[in-house]
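Lab notebook page, bench 4
Experiment: in silico fold of construct C2
Operator: M.H.
Input chain length: 403 residues
Purpose: comparison with the prior construct
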Amino acid sequence: MRRSQDRISTSHVGSLPRPDALIEANRARDAGETADQSAFEATLSASVMDVVRHQRELGIDVPGDGEFGKSMAQRVNYGSWWRYSWQRLAGIEPGEQTLYEMAPQHSRPGAIVLTSFGDRRDRTQFSAAYNDPESGITTGPRPPAPICVAPLTYAGHDMIQTDIANFKTALSAAGVEEGFMTAVAPGSCSRIGNRYYKTDEEFLYACAEAMREEYRAIVAAGLILQLDDPAIAENWDMINPEPSVEDYKKFSMLRIEALNHAIRGLPKDRIRFHLCWGSWHGPHVTDIAMRDIVEVMLAVDVQAYSFEAGNVRHEHEWKVWQEIKLPDDKLILPGVVSHATNVVEHPELVAERILRFTKLVGRERVIASTDCGLGGRIHPQIAWAKLEALAQGAALASRQLWG
C-alpha cells in the first residue's frame, strides 16, 4: 500500500458523483426499461474511464472507481455503498418494509439489539427537523429492505469482475499504479431482515463468508480493498436506550471478529478499513466518541484506517492520537475535507488538518482523504472542488514537511 514517502499522498473514501448518463442508465436498467446490456456496459465503462482520469488530473494519488458499478439511479443517494450487495447475494428476497418503518426494538444491559433506522436517537431528539422537508436533512430514497430466507451465498462474481475490469482499464489509461475498490463489511451487510438463521451471530458470519468472495476477487486483481463498515460507529445511535460503552464495545467486537474471519489469509497490506458515523446531513449529537471506539477500529486486521476528521462533530477528535499509539506497521487516512457541508474547505485549512496528524503519527503514515463518500451527498461541482482543495492542501502540507 502506498505510503507518503516524499510528499503527502491523497485518496478519498469511495463514492463520487455519477454522470447524468450513468444515472439514467441505472434508472432504466433498475426499472427494467432496457434490454440493451451492451449499451449499458459501454456507458459504465466510459464513466469509470472518465472518473479515474478526472481524479488523476486533480492530484488524487490513489483513486477509486467512484463506486460506479454500485447502482445509483438518482443524484441524491446515501445507500448505494451498501444496497449494491442486495444484488450480489443469493438467499434473500424483497421485503415489504424499509429499515425506517420496522418496529422499534429495545435493549437492556448486556442484551443489545438494533432498533429501526427510523428510531435512531438522533432522529427522535430532532424529530421536527428530520420531518421538515425544507430542513436540508435527507437520506435519499428508502427502498424496502430484503430478508434472508435461505442459505446466504455470493452471486455477484460476474458483477465484481466487470467492476474490476473497468477500473483496471481506466487505471492503465490514466497511468496510475495503485487504486482502491470498496466493499461492504459483514457488520453493515447484516443489517437486513433474517428469517433463515437461528441467531444474529450465525447470520453475521454467513454475511462474512459470502462477502469474502468479493474481497478475495478485489485483492487478487492487484487492487486495494477498502472495507466499508459505518455500522461499527453508527450502530450506537440505533440502540435504545443508550447502552454502556463497554456493552457496545462487546457488541461491536463480534462484528470485528466476523470481519477478521472474512479477510483471513488475505494480505493485510492490501486492505484498508473505513469507519464513519453515517453520512446523512443531520445533527449527529448522539454519535459515539472516537475515543470510545478507536481501539475497536484498530482491532480490524488491516494496514490502514480511514475515518471522519473534517466535519464539525468529529474534527476535534484528532486529539485521540495523542493518547492512542498507532501500531508501527499501520497507516491512517483521516478525512480532511467533509461531505457534510457545501462550503469548500480552504487548502490552508486542509494543510493544517493534515499537519495535526503527521505530528502525532509521522508524515509517512498519513494519507489525506475525505470524511466519507462525496457522490450522492453534495452537488457534483462542489464535490470535485473539494477533491481539488484536498490535493492543494496536501501539497501545502508536503512543502512544510519535506521542504
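Observations: The first strand starts at residue 9 and ends at 10. Residues 380-402 form the longest helix (23 residues).
Next step: discuss at group meeting.
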